[in-house]
Amino acid sequence: MLTFRNGSVAALALALLASGAACAQANDPHLDLEGVETPSSLAWVKAQNDKTLPVLSGDPRFQGLQAAALKILSSHDRIATPDFIGRTVFNFWQDQTHVRGVWRRTSLESYKSADPQWETVIDLDALAAAEGKNWIWKGADCRPKTHDRCLVNLSNGGKDAVTVREFDLTTKTFVDPAAGGFVLPESKQTLEWLDADTLILTRDWGPGTTTDSGYGFVIKTLKRGQALDQAVEVYRGQKSDVSVRPEVLRDASGARVVLLTRATDFFHDETYLWNGERAYRLPVPQKAQIAGLLDGRLILRVLEDGLGAKAGDVVAVGPTATAGQVIFSPGPRQSVDQVAVTDHAVAMAIYDNVRGEVAVFRPTGATWVRAVLPGLANASVSLGSHADEGDEMFYSVEGFTTPTTLRLADAATGASETIKALPAQFDAANLVVEQKSAISKDGTQIPYFLVHEKGWALDGQNPTLLHAYGGFNLSKLPVYDPLIGKLWLERGGAYAVANIRGGGEFGPAWHEAALKANRQRAYDDYFAVAEKLIADKATSPRHLGAYGRSNGGLLMGVALTERPDLWNAVVVESPLLDMIRYTQLPAGASWIGEYGDPAIPAERAWIEKYSPYQNLKAGVKYPLAYITTSTKDDRVHPGHARKFAARLDDLKVDHLYFENTDGGHANGADPKANARRWALHYTYLSRQLMDH
């Protein structure tokens, strides 16, 4: 074995790795497209958009699809999503008149009526116009108990980074900084109210205070009237962390717990209790989600065994987090999707074979009494906002063809009433929903939903769109989507949703089965569902399309490169595609816990096998792909999509590319832009899958 003066073979390996990374970077002919708004990048984007938009917007179906999408997105028939602040109901609303939106409020009784009387609090269109800013709404965090002041989060063009400004709900004006109003410049930041005049927060405080993932790792307190450089540090993580963030929990008695969470990777946290002077590490499992505080006890869902519970359980633990009491333990085909804590109860959205129900649990001595709230069979459920004083909580119930119903419940008693019901947004009378399964490459049974016309012919001719996500413990549930219904199902298309591994449909183990070195399992699951649809003659490769975004966009890149024979359309939206450089792009390093680290040779070896950008090859017959992203996406860098499209150009492979210049990762800039986005999607899918 050779050794060297500077140490050992390990040193040589590191040197070779660095050299290899530098070589890979030097050999990337499209590296300049990672410059988000450089003149050369924007010129390339314009050229691509100028080629794509005439093709899709010039299709005779485009205008009708765009009009239908805009009608849905700006309809006054939509349920105005309620958000409790105290006992007042707030809502953020966008329509054709209020493109950027209005933040508004009404009383609970008025909200429950057929015609709520809304009072505008902030008109974002007027604010943006008055200040000459491209403001996009990102929510508000209001002062507990008094509910008179809020920290309003405003994003420039839809980025995750926000500017925070204090707002007075009584006068409906921003609080002048000269009078002590909080104003925090643009940053990715997490803030909590410690008291009426003190914040605890993490943000970019300047050089050396953000992680490799681009989030803050220094927590400070900031008092009213202090400048940022006067904030007092209370905890410091490490640059290699994903992030460090504060959380302030309060229960009905007024007890307050301040937690500091150090995310060492995307899924592992160290939890500290801060007593105002020092931070003490709590023996909470590193894979756990803290939901709230009830009677002085932390309520959390453990994602690994610990505290006397198994992965997936919801437990209550004392203030020192040394002993846990299991509130609910899901079975092998069950999972807990959401947990909420009210003054006297714990509410959960529980799924059994991807079918949901809402249950509430009340502590009674050493036991917990369970009550199931009214819902629907074969449906999705979602916990909404709950009052921060009392036990009132909203929850919704919906299915693929069943419009959303909003209910208001008393979590302590189990009483529940219907508040709103969404009118049908598309004609579902002739549609049927089936739950079926496919067998993946390793023998695992993969469930999927299939929505199609009654009595359809199994002749392989049905235009079918297959959707999945398969990552980050996120489940794909049977939700009511008016856009899919109106723009696809109503026009004769079929829609399938695959519950592949990597998601959370069956608890932590379902997610962990496709982590890191086992990532290929998620892709094999997806291909198995596609092959089953084809084998059943529900569709054929000529009429089968694939759609995914973000991590699902990575799935689409793999679908295109590994199994181009299965599809005639692939929508690759807001995607991760260059998995060798993903950690070098904003927010990418935060996902090492999901995908692995390409800087480690052993991990790079299995990432390289599927990384779509590196696996595009000459001489392969690829279907015409539609690749789309946003310039303002500061979560999944637009360079991924750009470089992938440029590589297809190198190979002289036809494709369509469109980049929205606003919207961010959530594509939520305004209903008009979103309507165009969906119209482009479905025009492309219609051309590829419906035309013969």
UniProtKB/TrEMBL annotation:
Biological process terms in GO annotation: proteolysis
The protein's name: Serine protease, S9A family peptidase
Keywords: Hydrolase, Protease, Serine protease, Signal
Protein species of origin: Caulobacter vibrioides OR37
InterPro entries: AB_hydrolase_fold, Pept_S9A_N, Peptidase_S9_cat, Peptidase_S9A, Prolyl_oligopep/macrocyclase
Signal peptide: 1-24
Coiled coil: none
GO cellular component: cytosol
Every Peptidase S9 prolyl oligopeptidase catalytic domain range: 488-689
Keyword S-adenosyl-L-methionine: no
UniProt keyword Signal, yes or no: yes
GO MF annotation terms: oligopeptidase activity; serine-type endopeptidase activity
Pfam families for the chain: Peptidase_S9, Peptidase_S9_N
Domain Peptidase S9A N-terminal: 26-420
